[in-house]
Amino acid sequence: MGRTFPVGKLDAKLLAKLIKKYYRKNKALIVPPKIGEDAAVIKEESKYLVLTTDPITLTKGEVGLYSVYINANDIASMGGEPKWFLTTNLLPEGKTSEKDVEALFKTVSSVCQDLGIAWIGGHIEITSGLKRPIVVGEMIGTVKKDKITATSNSKLGDDLLLVKGIAIEGTAIIAREKEKYLKKRFPPSFLKRAKNFLIKPGISILKEALLANNSVKINAMHDPTEGGLSTGIMEVAQASEKGILVFSEAIKIYQETEILCREFGLDPLGLIASGSLLISLPPKESPKLLKIFRRKGIPVSIIGKIKQKKFGYKLKVNGRIKKLPRFEVDEITKIYRRSW
């Protein structure tokens, strides 16, 4: 049977090999498949279409909310505005009630409405062998030619900005998946805050991405997800064929995140990170964007510098330079391996 894969993203080298082998060029495709790119861009008259798809598999709660936000994030990171949404809903046999189905529909509809997105259809079925619901979202948006912020557009000498903190999604997942265990160890107020990370600070980066792209000249944006901030940063460097120096002290980690990571022995740099936004832009543009975000009360900091490819992926900690940690599997998977 050959080697098998752990839970999480497919091995990057294998994926790159398969893309190179099976991808066929298309004149309408402006941004084609590539490691680190989370959406495709298609030319369509005066604007381009931006398309992406993402499954929600790591959490059993709020899958509808996750599916809209995560897919909208990919469109926004490409510089686009999400317009239309489809879902493939696979629901577990013997565990799905009419109430469950309606709750899913209600959530997707409500979130789409809040974001100005049209939910235009999809597919739903009860599927045997599933332990939890799986929702695969397909999002379509539009982008102007001069506003594309593909991950691969990062330039040598760019500042790398982090908007909001890291592991926002991971914090919410831990609080929700391990609520029974955590209730015995932490006060209700703490658990409530951590569970609410889905909304505040929130796993959506749509507002922040649109604000940034409409305010200054940006080269690239990327929303780190599985594998955490560290993997997201590597994806920026890999897609743009550059190196990166990251400043550890500049990375914002929420107190709730630190506490939960310590409780379960997780590294926040490798914890699923939807809700964070990475922006690569010329240094002369950074002060203006920092001022705009801070005026609106949105956490932001310069956490790195784009270097030549031969520099590699480095992390500066207390004045010392070391390799940026690599996570083959997202740290969130560790919470499912023990019965806490």
Short summary:
With about 350 residues, the protein is α+β, with helices and mostly antiparallel strands. Helices cover about 30% and strands about 25% of the residues. α3 links the parallel β4 (about 80-90) and β5 (about 120-125).
Structure overview:
By secondary structure, the chain is of the alpha+beta class. 32% of the residues lie in helices and 25% in strands. It folds into two domains: 12-147, 2-Layer Sandwich (60s Ribosomal Protein L30, Chain: A), CATH 3.30.1330; 151-336, PurM-like C-terminal domain (Phosphoribosyl-aminoimidazole Synthetase, Chain A, domain 2), CATH 3.90.650. The protein has helices at residues 12-22, 63-77, 98-115, 168-177, 179-183, 188-195, 206-213, 228-240, 255-264, 286-295, and strands spanning 29-31, 40-44, 47-56, 81-92, 118-127, 134-143, 159-163, 220-222, 243-247, 277-281, 300-307, 313-317, 320-323. The strands form two sheets. The protein has a seven-stranded mixed beta sheet. Strands 1-2-3-6-4-5 form a six-stranded mixed beta sheet, with helices on one face. Strand 2 and strand 3 form a beta hairpin. It starts with 11 loop residues before the first helix and ends in a 17-residue tail after the last strand. 45% of the residues are buried. The mean pLDDT is 91.
Largest sheet: 7 strands, mixed
What fold name goes in the CATH topology slot of the largest domain? Phosphoribosyl-aminoimidazole Synthetase, Chain A, domain 2
Low-pLDDT ranges: none
- CATH secondary-structure class of the largest domain: Alpha Beta
Fourth-tier CATH superfamily name of the largest domain: PurM-like C-terminal domain
Percentage of residues in DSSP E strands: 25-35%
The separation of the N and C termini measures 33 Å
The Rg value, from CA coordinates, equals 20 Å
The ordered H/E elements are HEEEHEHEEEHHHHEHEHEHEEE
Whole-number mean pLDDT: 91
Q: How many structural units, i.e. domains?
A: 2
Structural class: alpha+beta
Number of strands: 13
Shape by Cα distribution: globular
Q: Which bin fits the share of residues in helices?
A: 25-40%
* Main β-sheet, spatial strand arrangement: 8-10-7-11-9-12-13
Number of H/I helices: 10
CATH architecture label of the largest domain? Alpha-Beta Complex
